[in-house]
Every structure is written in structure tokens, then in C-alpha cells.
Amino acid sequence: MSDNKNVGAPAPVRRIEVDGAEGAERPTVPAAMEYDYTNFYFGAGSDAFALLEPFEEWYSQVKPAGYYLYELPLQTQPGTRVDIRDTKTGEIRRGLVNFASYNYLGLSYRPEVKQAIKEAADIFGGGSSGSPILSGTTELHKLLAEEMADFKGKEAAILFPTGYSANVGTIAGLMRSGDLIVADQFAHASIVDGMILSKAKSRFFRHNRADDLDRKLSGFDGKKLVIVEGVYSMDGDVPPLAEIIEVCRKHGARLMIDEAHSAFVFGPTGKGVAEDQGVEDEVDIHLGTFSKSLGGQGGYVAGPQNLINYLRGFSRSRFFSCALSPVVVAGLRKALELARNEPELRTRLWENVRRMQELLTNEGVPQGESISHVIPIMVRDDARIFMIGEEMMREGVFINPVRYPAVGKHKSRFRMSISAAHTPEDLEEGATKIARVLGRYGLCQ
Ligand SMILES: Cc1ncc(COP(=O)(O)O)c(C=O)c1O
């Protein structure tokens, strides 16, 4: 979070001139783009609404300059080609190559998944109408939990309404004030929020650095939990698990992994990065979401029966919230079955990843250090990232611009998600168009 607490400053009207390609006429970026959400976090005064007005003033300036690229309404399923409404012009932009959805295996819209959803809707209706511990659990929920435990090779599994609530509920359900939690510095917001809610002492170790984890765990005498992710969602890299496990053992710390982006994709049977690195049984808590590779919604934890029993009683984000819709659960059961029965989906995904890396490299597009299906395209220009994002959309590519505070300052990028469903033509057209836009800004090497 920004350390600039003196906020509420009205956004300046000065405009930043942007260099364009030779001869090309480019719009200017308002100087207000130098501000971001963090400038409106703290404000003086006793009125809880004190920040609304300056925020609104700032937002009205930056929205047309690119902040509108959030929440563009899709008109279609999250396939490899999508139609979206450009909320600035009102136009429907059709047939964009989609690199923005998490649908890594293309399962969300498979006919078998849609059929399972329709059948469940006929039996159960739209929602669960209750907490999972009261009236919200259907037979489908029980079956999905058992199937997830079986898939992960664990004694038991428990479902959550989202991956976010799985992290919050598990971390705050298990850890207490006076305990220590140490997470990777790039941990997802849901991990950070779980740490805050637990009231345990929270520390962060340098990204993927087991030696720093060792330092952060040193000198603490009490309950310790270490949290890492399978694939880091902004960088597409993976943790060195063997080294991290060694440090955890040395300090008697439990290890939790969030395989949100890696489950169903990594490993010989698709369990995730822990399986891929041969340490599946040395990780204590396996957490993930159904919203990425399975193309649905929800979260899960898999592990020993006594852990799952405890979480059932102490995960407030789960039992004080409505259970997943049975319609969603039915789709997830079918998606899980397809992911397990069709390993060729993973093979195709990895072929697509390699092909896209090759295409981008040939085009001179600057990529981050990813080894996965999440490929960051580095722009490192916080002022212009949205302007470039707008051009990507107009060129025919749907890809999300990411800037501070979601990533560090001057580390803005496009976050590209590859899917098994992308065709060779999708990949080629996408790479060419991305390179064309970046080239206009002098960003291709
Ligand atoms: C690492 C990680 N954990 C948890 C979540 C939250 O998952 P969900 O969208 O299912 O709430 C995300 C979402 O992007 C994530 O990247």
C-alpha cells in the first residue's frame, strides 16, 4: 500500500504528452494517471465519506484514459474468441482473441458441462438457499468433495464458495493471535486477508527465496504456518518446493500451498505443482479454486481428515456464507471428470504455451520469467499501459492490463492466459496483433 497518506488531493489537470510512432497522432494521458487507488486509501477528516468526492474527481479523469478497461461486459462465453462491449464507445467488439479468461482447459463451456448444469437446475433450482452446515449441502456437494479428495489423493476435502473464501477461512480458521504466518511476498490478496483476519503475526519472505524464509522463521517459538502458491498469477513462475519444505522442517512449520492456477494443469496426473516437483505428500494443506482450470466457481482444501473436520467447524468464511449453487457444483463434477479423463487437454495446453512463447519471442515481445500458461508481457510503463490496452482491444485482442498496486510500481504488464482451447490460428493472430500494437510504442525488441 502506498505510504502517501496525504491523500484526497484533487487530481491535476496537466496532461502528459506521449511519444507515438512516427507521424501517428496519439492521445495524451492525463497527469491524474500518476495517481492510483492507493492515493485514496487514507484521508483526513471525520466523515466516512470524505474520500468519495476527491476519488470521484480523480476517477472521472482516469476512467476515459483507461481505467474503464476493467469490467468490460462480455457478450459471449469465455471462449478463445469473445465479443465484448467497449464501454467507452458503446460498440460491441466482436471476435477478439481472448487471452484474459482463466479457462485454462476450455472446460467452462464444454457441452457435457452445460448439460450437467441444465440437469441439476431441473432438480435443484438455482441456488443452495443455505449455509453448508445447515440446509445448503446437497448430495452433489458431498460427491464433489469426495471426488476432489480422491483426485488429490488425500483423506478428505472441503468446499468453499470461492477460492478467496477458502484462503481466508482456512488461514483464519487455523491460526490465532500470537502465532506466526510467513507467506511469499507475491501471495494473493486472499492469503494476505486471511493473515490479517487471523490476527497472527504476519511476515513475508522474498519471492521464492528459501534462505529469506529461513530468516523470517528464525527466533520464533510457537505455531508457524508457511504459505506459498503453485503458480504465481502475475508472473507465471513456481516456488522451489524442496528448499521451502527443508526450511519448514527445520523450524517445525506447517506448509500450505495455494494451487489456484496450477491444479489440473501441472504434474503427471494434474494434481499441481507439488505433484510436479515430487513433494505432494510433504505439503500439509492443499488449497485451490474451481474458477481457473475447471472454468467454474468455488474453492477447496484437501488434506488429512482431522484438518478438514476442524475447518468445517472453524472456517467462518464458509459456514457464515451460502453454499455453492448446486448448478455450479454439477458443472464442476463434470469438468473434474473431463480433466481427469482427458490428459490430452494438458498436453495441448503445454504445446500451446510453448508455441506462444516461440511466437512472442520471434516477434520480439518482452516476456517475464514465466514457465507456465500465465505469460506476463512486460510494458513497465504505468502511465501508458491502459492506452496500450485500449489499442489491444481495438486491434482485436482481449488481454488484461495490470498496473500498480496489483503489481509493483513500473512493473505494469499484460497478463496473458493460454488455454488448451486456443487454436494455432488464435495464437498466431494474437501474437501478431500484440506485437503490432507494442511495436507502435517502441516496446518490441
Ligand atoms: C492464488 C490465488 N488464490 C485465490 C484466488 C481466488 O480465487 P477465486 O477467484 O476462486 O475466489 C486467486 C484468484 O485469482 C488466486 O490467484
Characterization of this structure:
It contains 14 helices and 15 strands. The model is unreliable at 1-14 and 18-23 (pLDDT under 50). The strands form four sheets. Strands 5-11-10-9-8-6-7 form a seven-stranded mixed β-sheet, sandwiched between helices. A three-stranded mixed β-sheet has the order 3-4-13. The protein has helices at residues 52-62, 111-124, 139-152, 163-174, 189-198, 210-217, 241-251, 273-276, 305-314, 316-319, 326-341, 343-363, 385-395, 424-440, and strands spanning 15-16, 29-30, 81-85, 92-98, 156-160, 180-184, 201-205, 224-229, 254-258, 285-289, 299-303, 374-378, 397-398, 400-402, 413-417. Helix 5 (189-198) links the parallel strand 6 and strand 7. The longest helix has 21 residues, at 343-363. It has 445 residues and is α/β, with parallel strands linked by helices. The site of pyridoxal-5'-phosphate has 14 residues, from helix 4.
